[in-house]
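Researcher: Can you fold this with zinc ion in place?
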Amino acid sequence: MTRGFYVTTPIYYINGNPHIGHAYTTIVADVLARAGRTRGDTFFLTGTDEHGQKVADAAAAAGVSPQEWCDRLVPKWQNLFGRFDVSYDDWIRTTQPRHTEKVQRVFERLRRSGDVYLGKYEGWYCANDETFWLQSKLIDGRCPNPECRREVQWLSEDDWFFRLSKYNGRLLEHFRTHPEWVRPRSAYNEMMSMLQEGLEDFSISRSNFAWGIPVPDGAGVIYVWFDALLNYITALGWSEDDERFARYWPASVQLIGKEIARFHTIIWPAVLWALGEQPPELVYAHGWITLDGQKIGKSLGNAADAFELVERFGSDAVRYFLLREGHFGSDFTYSEAKITQRYNDELGNDLGNLLRRVLAMLEKYRDGLVPQPGSSAMGERFADLPARVQMLTFNLQFRDALEAIWELVAALNREIDERKPWTLYREGRSSELDALLYDLCEGLRWLAVMLAPFMPGKSVQMWHQLGLEDGIGDDWQQSLQWGTLAAGTQTAPAQPLFPRIDA
Ligand SMILES: [Zn+2]
């Protein structure tokens, strides 16, 4: 059976509204999924993490049941991702029976195999983070999480434990033999040093609150993180639909924020091994978007209003900015001024004006009809570009991929400036003008195809303005052959792609 390309985002904890940081991870996954679909079978999963104390607290504060709270919040999240043209194939909710039943099945199976056992949990507990902390990690007796710093309480309870320590050696071995499986390098190194310090068993049940998946034949609920991690396989029909599971698992790319790397690269593979499954091929821990040097997040109260951003700049421009501004994996700073600048310079001037100028000249000199091609020199010059863009994209070097695409944008602009179609027209050098206009149109068609994963809305607008109708770039191999654009194609009158925005 051919293996599909499986990309996931973390499932989002819905104790509040989504912010631009959530949209960022999801947009990145969407770019990968859209790129994946130009190559073959692809599955893109996102969803919501709906259990745990913070969800229960948020629901109580709103005066509704936790389930009602989740049912109310999920459409808001889906709506935001919809506004960013996110093309997920499945949205898993951890309160769905398709998930909860399988989580209980995992629990039972691991309890039978001895990987899950009953023990006593004692420690300093932060209810906000739902995390136990060692005495030595506390700061002034408070939670050490810099975004929390709340009071902690001493808890002692009988909990179920996952035998994580048993997998310490195998994890070290896996990290050593798969040095690229956790990226970027900073995340890999951090996890490696945790493994070298040694792992303790990991508590996977809670008896001090009720909003979670009940422990089968036992007291308490399953710890929200253990529950949540399993979504990546429950959504594929683990233990029920073996064919589908084998088609997509192990996942090709699991995207996460760097703050949750430990769960995804230490606990997650160990749980999978305990189940007899493989770890994901790649876990990528991306950086944070910062605003005035602080991580954007609800808890800091500086959540940039993601809806407002889409309203102001449009989905494509925000997607473009997020992928172009920083090297994926590193933190980068967001500001309205920066988006506005990239919008006006790169999208408005470089790309939008290029399309407008070409279509206007075509209208003026050739009644809007694509002329006959000349030599294939331009096509030969950029013959390796699609493969390069694809390689960079699947290597999660989105900024480099966009810069590579911009080489063609710059080359087409230069062709106009240097070869001056208006002079060719005036001097009656008709076949030269035809060849030049053809290259410009074909170059724009290529740009639309290559930009489609990044800017799905505007690339389709480009496609239509070029007079093309069918699916845009469904198959890169086929559509990115220079000379595919048919002479005689009737183009549409130019419409501004990115109307100027005043700073
Ligand atoms: Zn805390």
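Model: Folded with zinc ion in place. Residues 335-479 form a domain with the Isoleucyl-tRNA Synthetase; Domain 1 fold (CATH 1.10.730.10).
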